[in-house]
Amino acid sequence: MKFASRALLLAALLLSACTKEAIYQEESFVFGTRVEISIYGSDENQARNASAAVMQEFQRLHQLLHAWKPSALSELNTAFAAGKTVSVNPELEAILRDASALSQQSGGLFNPAIGGLVRLWGFQADEFLPALPDAQQLAALVAAQPQMGDISLRPLTKKKSSPQSATSRNRAVQLDLGGYAKGYALDRAAALLKQRGIQHALINIGGNIMALGTHGSRPWRVGIQHPRKPGPLATLELHDGEAIGTSGDYQRYFELDGKRYCHVLDPRNGQPVQGVQAVTVLTRGARAGVLSDAASKPVFIAGAGAWLATAQKMQLHEVLLIDAVGTVHLTTAMQKRLEFKDKNIARKLAQ
Predict the structure, then answer these.
(1) Which of 139, 141, 267, 310 falls between 20 and 30 A from 120, CA-CA?
(2) What is the pLDDT along the chain (351 residues), one digit of tens a residue?
(3) Contact criterion met (CB below 8 Å) for 14 and 43
(4) Count of domains in the chain?
């Protein structure tokens, strides 16, 4: 993926530019992207063992949440399509409840239930063919209006210890947690590193980045990728427990007849979002990872005309949106955090 490799390169370059002190780094490929863990100030064996535990956790989550290869999530999708009820483990139940709450908060713009649309557009694949979906199939899926509210979670039996079950009243519901899983993995990685005594680290999953502690005497410094040029649009310092997440039309996309079709779909019309190049959000708190991933999607879908209202719905304060012509729209709080590489870039501060 073009964006993933560039985002990781940005992080690596910024780290190397900041210090000559030793950092333990490990990379892998999971969630369809490259991931990187950078640990500062820890014994090498401790850092290696902690990194290995995180990478193992990433693989576990990949196998749990994969939307189209055999996984617990794909089993759910098969059951939903057949109108059947299936048991779900406590972790997946909690994820579905959280994703449903975020979907409701966003007014349905964040909608992991539209996996059928994602597949129809060809984005449930490692490589994307430049082809438009069948118009009738697309119209039928949009008309079916699959949404997280169609899913019911309840005990499988009347026993207190009964496992939870899931069913959907709408057979068009097909879950794709591609806009949630990386953020969830960030939160899990942070928890695992802390459990193993790691106090200072930077976790990068394809451009979704979380900081723990500091980089020596300084905060961690990361870059926000320019959506149309190599290198960063801006840099910022990430403090302990903060995360950034970016949604862009340059990550997963194809071009046909001179038009770009990105993987971020508007659930209201089933079409790839146009008019936005990228959205970056800064989050913090116990669920900073999840919010960095999920909350950027509804802001991206809302577009240049309604991004601020949507950001407020998602309780986001530090937000940046780049529109189709490259103008940077951002909140005052976000502007205070950024150092732009191009001081003359067109910027519009939210009122």
Answers:
(1) 310
(2) 333 444 444 554 455 444 446 899 999 998 888 999 999 999 999 999 999 999 999 999 999 999 999 999 999 999 999 999 999 999 999 999 999 999 999 999 999 999 999 999 999 998 889 999 999 999 999 999 999 999 999 987 777 666 789 999 999 999 999 999 999 999 999 999 999 999 999 999 988 999 999 999 999 999 999 999 999 999 999 999 999 999 999 989 999 999 999 999 999 999 999 999 999 999 999 999 999 999 999 999 999 999 999 999 999 999 999 999 999 999 999 999 999 999 999 999 997
(3) no
(4) 2
Rounded-to-integer distance, Cα 330 and Cα 188, Å: 29
- β pairing state of 328-330 and 347-349: parallel
Burial 103-119 (b: 16+ CB within 10 A, else e): bebbbbbbbbbbbbbbb
Cβ contact 316:283 at 8 Å:
yes
How many alpha carbons fall within 13 Å on the CB side of residue 3? 24
Q: Answer yes or no: do 217 and 295 share one domain.
A: yes
pTM: 0.92
Same structural domain, 239 and 312: yes
> Tokens 């997280």 appear where?
148
Is there a domain that residue 176 lies in? no
